[in-house]
Fold these 4 entries.
Entry 1:
Amino acid sequence: MDTYNIVSIIDNETGAATDPRVKNPMADKPCSSLKVAVPEQKFPSSKWIKLNVGGKVFQTTIWTLVSKEPDSMLARMFSQEGAMMPSDQDETGAYLIDRSAHYFEPIINYLRHGQLIVDPNISLEGVLEEAKFYGLESLVSQLEEQIMQNNQSLDNQPLTRRDVIKALIQTSHITEIRFQGVNLAGADLRKLDFRNINFKYACMQRCNLSHANLTYCCLERTDLAYANLECAQLISVKGLCANMEGANLRGCNFEDPSGLRTNLEGVNLKGACLESSNMAAVNLRVANLKNANMKNCNLRSAVLAGADLERCNLSGSDLQEANLRGANLKDAELTLMVTPLHMAQAIR
């Protein structure tokens, strides 16, 4: 009789011993029906870990990575469910992430305290790209909104003297320069040559244009309120309905030797100072000159028909052949006139 060394095999599921001579009914089943258990990658939320981002090591807790944005890539890498396997580790055990450390620092700080704080030397666009990579949706929306606001504020920011000089230098003298609708509020533009430039609808409030050359410029509906244009050259400018309220135009020259009229029809010069200016033949039809100082002005052949000259100081001015028909001269100062004012010139 043959002898056998009987070896019992312990079943892992039932714990029962099996005889190897007995055919196992599960042996013929395909391998695909067998379940292979994979150990879960679990990280306790209080555990400290190190992240090597682009060569720079950051130390934080699992809780920081998973609590604020549970659906982000970082949260899925280190969550209890282990939805995503972490990356490789360096020799110190820090998890390697091949991204920019420069832009990652604001992101990890956001995950720590929930506030978006970005240093001025860091590009918001760069942080936005990293936030998109990590899947931080709430941070992405905040960054996009802030970038939009910053762009809008830059669009509305006034140009500086440097910006204007750069534009003047880079533009050929035969090319038309347009600053139409541009914000130049408060800019220091004194002594610059702006001949033939279009400033239509531009905002030039409180600009310093003293001694500037604005000959043949278009100032139509330009806002020059409280601007300083002292001793500026304003020969043959087109200033239809411009706002020059409270502006300083002392000693300006408006007269064109060729005979062309400076057109300031409908201009607002309320409270402006035009003392000692040469305004010969200027068109100031229906202009608002209330409380304006036009002392010692040359207004020969000027058109002031329908202008509001209430409480305007015209003392010492030359109004020879000026057209004042329909002008409001209520309480206007008309003493020491160079030439007598005829009643035919001013009916109202």
Entry 2:
Amino acid sequence: MDNFCCFSSQLSGGRSSYGSGKGRSHQGHTKYGFTLVKGKANHPMEDYHVAKFVQYHGRELGLFAIYDGHLGDKVPAYLQKNLFHNILKEEEFWTDPGRSISKAYERTDQAILSHSPDLGRGGSTAVTAILMNGRNLWVANVGDSRAVLSKRGQAIQMSVDHEPNTERNSIENKGGFVSNMPEIKVKVLHSYLEYETENKKLSEFLSYTFCYVVKVINPCPLIISGDVARVNGQLAVSRAFGDKNLKSHLRSDPDITSADVDGDTDLLIIASDGVWKVMANQEAVDIAKKIKDPQKAAKQIVVESLNRESKDDISCIVVRFTG
């Protein structure tokens, strides 16, 4: 049985993943490996993944995805359980994969919003990759999780980072705004806990933070650094699943790209922004290209991200097509 992070559960979906795993196609020589590590933030792991090969209507499909949640893990868990299922049940999937993926993304988001009392006010990014018969690759994404293809060792970004500054016009045309808010580090008992601002006003955020940390006995220094563009001063991506309170100013339609997998195609890297905040596309490809075992390659990318002081949850899938 191929490794696939998805378990029976209630409406919220599966469970987040820790550790590593690997598998391979039933046809051909394609292999994959993944590694997931919880970040340093004081909340449960919010990254979920899918990695498996399946036989569907007599053809082999490789299904790979990373869902990076925020304000809770219920939305990425729901995506883990439902998004690929919704894509594959589209009538036009075999004849028009791109249109089917787009329709399924939109319908899945509508389902999440309709279940908002159960799934909460949070949301999730998504990057999905479907390998059809080992020859055709379809990548889609919303948010800033990323897919990078390597051909002859050269990195080719297959996804689009949906950041508030790059989609400012769309946000403002819908009545929203983009503002820059700082990252805040609170020193508590000699350890640093990172929080991202979720309120429009800094004072409101500080009040929320100290309530969340709970009963800080001694005054604690604040370290305020960097500017992060956010939709309505809250969310650091311009497209996402869920986020009902911001949905009127957000988009959930994916960017979709496709590529033929040929003899020049080395590997595919799918990772959450815990990798891409500290590592360039080509750097990740250079690491993975040197390691034939995709599980070990994914682990090394995660280790290097940690060495570069990535604080976020870190998830990485490497799919190796050759060698």
Entry 3:
Amino acid sequence: MPRGNSKKGTPARGQGVKRRRMADPKEKEQPIASVVNPRSSVVPFPEPSTKCISDTNSNSEPSMDSITEESARLFSDSLAGNTWKSYSRARSVLDSFQLLYTLDKVWPVPVEQLVQFIAYLSLKHFSPATVRLYISGISFSHKERNLEDTTKNFVVSKMLEGLHRNHPQRDNRAPVTLPLLRQITDALPSICSSTYESLLFKSSFILAFFAMLRVSEFTTKNKSDSSTEALQLSDVVVSDCQLKINIKKSKTDQRGYSTFIVINKYRDNASICPVLTLKKYLAARPAVSGCYHLFMHFDGSPLTRYQLSAMLRKSVNFCNIPNPNLLKSHSFRIGAATEASKRGINDEAIKKWGRWSSGAFERYIRIPW
């Protein structure tokens, strides 16, 4: 990214950030978005706040109860909350299976039981992904007990492979294309309860597309969710020609190293330009004490995943889009990956842009579309 004389940007709601002057977009066409290493000096961005743990040099030593409590906390923090829930569910389903067929509840779980368990889940029409997740949970339980992991048995592995072969999973979610993005955002004033609500959903739709956001990265689970995992006001800085986003934590960044995304003005169509739209939204966003989520309603409550999906469904139905059930909240991310591929952006850049850690992004590209 070219460097130049520094000048002040226009940060979101008073978040002062110094930046380097970006090259005039007329000099050279810029990509829609780019990803910046958080340690890079090209685009200065405030480091995410970290929790400091005091290091006392007192002579007192922690009690054994404190040590035990800390060891449990560190172990608990090794997995995301949703992963713990899934693994707990796996053990619960296994317990129910053993009780139903009067099988011994022993650890390590006998290979014969695991084989029967997988066959049972298959007959109950559990998806291959869910079965594999349950087996992973059982595997984890073996390891935390320091026992032999019987889930790694050859027969168990082959049964899981057979399950996937017999039930191939096809992702039939459709992409939100650029024309469709324009269409559904144009429909919002006709279906939203207020001008502000229309601007809120338009901004969230457009940013979800151009930043390839996962729904968990910019919405909350419910209205009372006070976690800071979804984008906060301080995570966004807007200038005249660019939008800078700090994604502090994501599915592929559980340790919170952060990813910085720079989105340029979209000059092909000003009505869906992420920079212009977000500037307009931020100007209208009320200052509500204690409410720091980027996307929030006028009363200060955060935008939830259910609300985003419901409004997308309303917009699609209002526009009479064919096969509306194929358009989900993840369709923005799918559409952006598809558009990037159509424009010839290389695979590595798409992976960084969408924060994929593997080649899984290839399944998101719908070409032809």
Entry 4:
Amino acid sequence: MGFMNAFFLICASFSFFTGFAIAGNYHIDCNIGVAYGTQGDNLPPPSRALDPLQTRVRRFRLFDPNPDLLNYFNSTQGIFTIAIGALNKDIENLSKDPNFAKAWVNTNIVRYPRVKFNYIVVGNEMIRTNVSKYVLQAMINMNSAVKQSGVPQSIKVTTVVAMGVLGVSYPPSAAVFTTDSIQIMRGIVSFLQNQGFPLFLNVYPYFAYASNPSKIRLDYALFNTTDVVIQDGNLQYKNLFYAMVDSLIWAVEKAGGSNVEIVVSETGWPSAGNTAVATVEHAKMYINNMITTLMKSGTPKRPEHAMRTHIFAMFNENKKAEGVERNFGIYRPDLTEVYHVNWPPTASCDIGNR
């Protein structure tokens, strides 16, 4: 098995579609956000954590409808744009009971009229689990509930997939969904295509590298090489992140989603927990090199698309499993930086419901 075959079989990946272009100039400044996890018992209150970020970050992903965070965002007059998650444990009820979906929207959306919600994310990495069969109908019911609620903003309903939804992923243009997920993914992709909604993807080059360091170049995983590492037809890949994203996009296209946008819901690199790979230096390099790369262009398959991307995570969270899982934060709970992020400028941001 060659270097790239091994790498892509280890990490099932993400992709983009040919010919999908956004009108106007390429503009990424307002598209870098943060995934705000709350699995810690020593985290600061939202006002202390977020007030300093108002001039740096305008986009957040919440994993659940956290009332403290929602109350804070409701007080900020729409400065931030929010992707709010519905918990995995609620998916079956959302699927089976439209009234449950209506109650969820009333409790977590309508109650906060000054929050600028742009996405409701139904579940996190639930495809290829025993909950898979409920995800699409849960999304449909949630979308209907949003439309019936009368909220004045356009809110898009989606879900998050993991890299494991791909059965073939190398080269990116050969990517397809696994045989046990293809039927479900075709339904989800059709819904997203028809509604004009995006698909959320979690992208972690760290785990691909850490699983197979003898086959994957560290500089390729860290956006730290100018070498063409993958040549896929006329598409050239110099970083693992873009190769992963483009793999899923090819699979989405083949499932009928030629116009389904991709939003990166999580990506990051741990700063501790694996001394050989997870270091502050590598975490800082990965995130800042990623931002620099995104500022220049989109993926090789969609170079003109300024991809919305959420850095994981806001904090090191001490209630997560020991090891790297606790060490993806940009900040420590005392608000000191784990490493410095070179945030893009946000002064001219007008992100609306993007």
